[in-house]
Amino acid sequence: xxxxxxxxxxxxxxxxxxxxxxxxxxxxxxxxxxxxxxxxxxxxxxxxxxxxxxxxxxxxxxxxxxxxxxxxxxxxxxxxxxxxxxxxxxxxxxxxxxxxxxxxxxxxxxxxxxxxxxxxxxxxxxxxxxxxxxxxxxxxxxxxxxxxxxxxxxxxxxxxxxxxxxxxxxxxxxxxxxxxxxxxxxxxxxxxxxxxxxxxxxxxxxxxxxxxxxxxxxxxxxxxxxxxxxxxxxxxxxxxxxxxxxxxxxxxxxxxxxxxxxxxxxxxxxxxxxxxxxxxxxxxxxxxxxxxxxxxxxxxxxxxxxxxxxxxxxxxxxxxxxxxxxxxxxxxxxxxxxxxxxxxxxxxxxxxxxxxxxxxxxxxxxxxxxxxxxxxxxxxxxxxxxxxxxxxxxxxxxxxxxxxxxxxxxxxxxxxxxxxxxxxxxxxxxxxxxxxxxxxxxxxxxxxxxxxxxxxxxxxxxxxxxxxxxxxxxxxxxxxxxxxxxxxxxxxxxxxxxxxxxxxxxxxxxxxxxxxxxxxxxxxxxxxxxxxxxxxxxxxxxxxxxxxxxxxxxxxxxxxxxxxxxxxxxxxxxxxxxxxxxxxxxxxxxxxxxxxxxxxxxxxxxxxxxxxxxx
Length: 615
What we know:
Elements: E1 8-12, E2 21-24, H1 26-29, H2 41-44, E3 60-64, E4 67-74, E5 82-88, H3 99-134, E6 136-142, E7 147-150, H4 152-158, E8 166-168, H5 169-174, H6 178-193, E9 196-204, E10 210-218, E11 226-233, H7 235-257, E12 261-266, E13 271-274, H8 276-282, H9 294-297, H10 304-315, E14 321-329, E15 335-346, E16 352-360, H11 362-415, H12 423-451, E17 458-460, H13 462-479, E18 483-488, E19 498-500, H14 502-522, E20 529-536, E21 542-549, H15 578-589, E22 593-598, E23 603-610
Parallel strand pairs: 18-20
Antiparallel strand pairs: 1-2, 1-5, 3-4, 4-5, 6-7, 6-11, 7-8, 9-10, 10-11, 12-13, 12-16, 14-15, 15-16, 17-19, 20-21, 21-23, 22-23
């Protein structure tokens, strides 16, 4: 098989009579003092004539300078042309046969060449496929003619019409910016003088789009004026890099200017980086904490174990994201309350890192403390508001015992002069006084316990608490001609236990009973009645205590805001704190629910608490 590198081959369009050269092998290129690419065969070989019967393609003698060749056209099934081969006559210098035998020899060699060309075309298709996959294309730079001979793949890489297979350097450079023009020209000059060069340019394609190309050029030998090169389309790579740089700029801007502190930890808990806001929060310089352990440097001692636990759970994979509030120590030694969120991610180099986000919640914490104090004050105000009611109850309950004591004292004075037979009556009288005084003392103690705030949540029976309130309040209800009934859906409800603040719960029940009594009195209900009922939900996990009256109910326009502060149906007589404080106690302090609805005859307020016996 003929060596393609040493063969004198030309590839033409194959369309007579305008056969045009598309490609020239390196060996054939050396035969000409000019570049034959783009020229007609008849211009290159003046003696060549085209015959319609195509017999001229079988072989003819031509001369190039002083060298003689046999010109033969070979159709190897190419989709875009045929192959022209030049056989040097010196190949047949030692041939001693007839002219007919010589023609046969040419045919044999042409057949061998045809096989070689087919092999060459197969390799060319493979190369074309590789070029398409890699985004590359080859070209030849003719330094003496200042032009580039482009392969179809190179045209595709440049984004120009494939018919423009031969372009001048000026045409290429005019599509580049001034900097790239200078760079490309310098590269071609250097490549013409040295063995190898690589550069990068940005060029406009036929559609006006920008393409980023790597240009590789290499001079094959010192004896030629041509340079082989490869164009590599790196537009996607450069565009992606630009997008990444832009995104990195955006992310870095967000990172540094975010209104929260952000830091990055490695798997050992060492600080890799932190943003400007965190630096300002804790008073450290931007690089001062890098490489130091977060739990040792900025976490408050009381929260070190908490933060370590969060970190270990995230690193172990138990959680991917977790949030917790804790305190950090600033450089000046002061503490700062923060809400921290931690997120575990895998870095591009497969190293686990943890992002931490810290929000300053000191102001919020202060507000919470102030709100708690304010709620306590409101609770005490609510109790003080009911104190007048309780004083009235005590005064009413003490009237009869005091009258009894006065009468008994008078009787004892009369009995002083009585003989010994009156001794038994005196003892009985003293016992009665003691009972009355004990009743008064118990009333005062109950009143004192009611006013005492509960600081610790405990387990208690709501049935006992309700009955305790009724023991105090029932005489007041009786004085206002209000009947009060206590009902249990089942006997088991008397034993139900809840968790919370017993005295505050009593205050809620007293508020509800007082509101019901006031509504009955305000609306002048003849058969005034309050019903307190204990029931449970379907799964018995909650106990429901409802206080219902027949006092006419709440106005419809107040139903949605009845539990708001300073909302009252009593006008100037009401403080608007009773139901509001009841909601705070039940929902916020005892994790329960309180609701209201109007019935056919009045209002019904229900308190729902968790039955801890059914946990």
